[in-house]
Design a protein that fits this description.
By secondary structure, the protein is an all-alpha fold. It is about 75% helix and about 0% strand. A two-stranded antiparallel sheet has the order 1-2. β1 and β2 form a beta hairpin. α7 runs antiparallel to α13. The longest helix is centred in the last third of the chain and has 43 residues. It is globular, with a radius of gyration of 23 Å.
């Protein structure tokens, strides 16, 4: 007598959208958390130096994250898996590691030393129109008119945030337009992130998450270390072995680097780039709230103006996304109705 088979219980799977939103909550607060950590370090000087300097946060934070990533995903680094990765994949992985693992973080961390957290957050939204444009051009993704208009409006908001800054900040004169050096660094970093996102989506979607994350973090950390040595000298890492620094960096690296990046990569692999860009556009809201709650940094008038325009752009983009979704649902319903009519099901 055979036992009846138990019905399989449906396994709940977290959607790509959920992973993206969780990542944005972490990324949005990361700039404020980074600034807060440097303030904590300033209260515990070692030999007249801040042990939690921005360079140490990026370098030691990535080392801590790398250790955690190896513990979690180390088994994926085996001969059978590595043989399946082509030379073209390694080139793409290297490009992503340089752009998003070393160049972009280095520029953004330097910008945090020159301008306010809210400026870094708002100007960083340049990534939205850049990523959308590249996804249409290189990935042939379809973007609705409202999404395009929303991206343009968000770009205008970012531009207003830059040009309306008071002249008291460190500025650069570019053809009569006063541009803050910190804001300029964030803009360049946003370009690097947008390009790396497209490369990852186009060429690296099939690479195991562990290999992707470990290689990106390891190579990005090494490149940043030697770049910082060349720019600032070895004295800049004098407190790199401080136990006080490492305690905080394990928390920072584990939460923001490991969890945040893992959520983002998993969400990006199962979602269109346009969707990821739209979700990422809510970073300013999370970031400004985090800056106020963690640092007590209230938005300035230029940030209110630019942020409001960015929110209008986000609303327009969301409108276009909702129209696309409703259109797909309507098309699917119509197709099902036609099938039912053709098979004689209707009216039974």
């Amino acid at each position: 007598m055979t036992r009846p088979k138990r019905p399989h219980r449906p396994i709940y799977r977290i959607s790509g959208h959920t992973y993206l939103w969780l990542a944005i909550l972490i990324f949005g607060a990361s700039s404020a958390v980074t600034r807060k950590l440097t303030e904590i370090g300033a209260q515990h000087f070692i030999g007249g130096r801040n042990p939690i300097s921005l360079c140490n946060v990026l370098f030691v934070g990535n080392l801590c994250a790398l250790m955690l990533l190896i513990l979690i995903y180390g088994r994926q680094w085996n001969k059978a898996t590595l043989k399946q990765i082509s030379r073209k994949d390694w080139v793409s992985l290297t490009a992503v590691a340089i752009l998003s693992g070393a160049l972009a973080p280095g520029l953004i961390f330097q910008a945090l030393a020159l301008t306010g957290v809210n400026n870094v957050i708002l100007v960083g939204r340049l990534e939205l129109p850049l990523t959308l444009a590249l996804s249409v051009w290189l990935l042939k993704e379809r973007v609705s008119l409202w999404e395009f208009i929303g991206a343009v409006v968000a770009f205008v908001g970012v531009t207003l945030t830059i040009v309306l800054q008071p002249s008291s900040q460190a500025m650069m004169n570019m053809g009569g337009l006063q541009v803050g050096l910190g804001e300029l660094l964030v803009a360049v970093g946003s370009v690097a992130v947008a390009v790396s996102t497209i490369i990852g989506k186009k060429y690296l979607s099939q690479i195991p998450l562990g290999i992707y994350s470990i290689f990106r973090t390891a190579l990005g950390t090494v490149i940043f270390f030697f770049l910082a040595l060349a720019l600032y000298g070895s004295d800049h890492f004098a407190d790199v072995l401080s136990p006080f620094l490492w305690r905080w960096m394990f928390l920072y690296g584990g939460l923001i680097v490991v969890v945040g990046q893992s959520f983002w990569i998993k969400g990006l692999r199962t979602s269109p780039v346009s969707t990821a860009s739209l979700v990422g556009s809510f970073t300013p809201i999370v970031g400004i709230v985090a800056a106020y709650l963690i640092l007590g940094e209230a938005p300035t008038l230029p940030q209110y103006i630019g942020g409001s325009v960015i929110l209008v752009g986000l609303f327009l983009s969301q409108l276009g996304k909702m129209q696309q979704t409703s259109g797909r649902v309507a098309f699917s319903t119509q197709a099902e109705q036609e099938v039912e009519n053709g098979m004689g099901f209707k009216g039974i």
